[in-house]
Amino acid sequence: MELADAFGSVLKKYRTKANLTQEKLAEHCKIERTFISMLERGERRPSLSMVFELANVLKVSPTRIVKEVEKLLNDEV
């Protein structure tokens, strides 16, 4: 699994857990919905500031997101 794919998987998990659509998440982050879609599909990589913004809106720590991404990547080895 690639880094972008792992991040997308974790992002989608927390977005659905927060009961937010891609559109609502994008609205809260003041970005385009298509960017959220591309992140979730592993087609884009977020900046560090975007990880913090997404985490804030999803009410989860950025550290938790990064740790889950790391775990997904390590589980593949």
Fold blueprint:
Layout lengths: L2 H15 L4 H8 L3 H8 L7 H11 L3 H14 L2
Characterize the structure shown.
The N and C termini lie close together (9 Å). The longest helix has 15 residues, at 3-17. The protein is globular. It has helices spanning 3-17, 22-29, 33-40, 48-58, 62-75. With 77 residues, it is mainly α. It has a single domain (3-75), classed as lambda repressor-like DNA-binding domains (434 Repressor (Amino-terminal Domain), Orthogonal Bundle), CATH 1.10.260. α1 (3-17) crosses α5 (62-75) and α2 (22-29) crosses α3 (33-40). The protein contains five helices and no strands.
Features:
single chain; 77 residues; mainly alpha; 434 Repressor (Amino-terminal Domain)
Q: What would you give as the CATH superfamily?
A: lambda repressor-like DNA-binding domains
Number of strands: 0
User: What is the chain-wise order of helices and strands?
Assistant: HHHHH
| CATH topology call | 434 Repressor (Amino-terminal Domain)
CATH architecture field: Orthogonal Bundle
Low-confidence stretches: none
Short summary:
The protein is an all-alpha fold. It has helices spanning 3-17, 22-29, 33-40, 48-58, 62-75. It has a single domain (3-75), classed as 434 Repressor (Amino-terminal Domain).
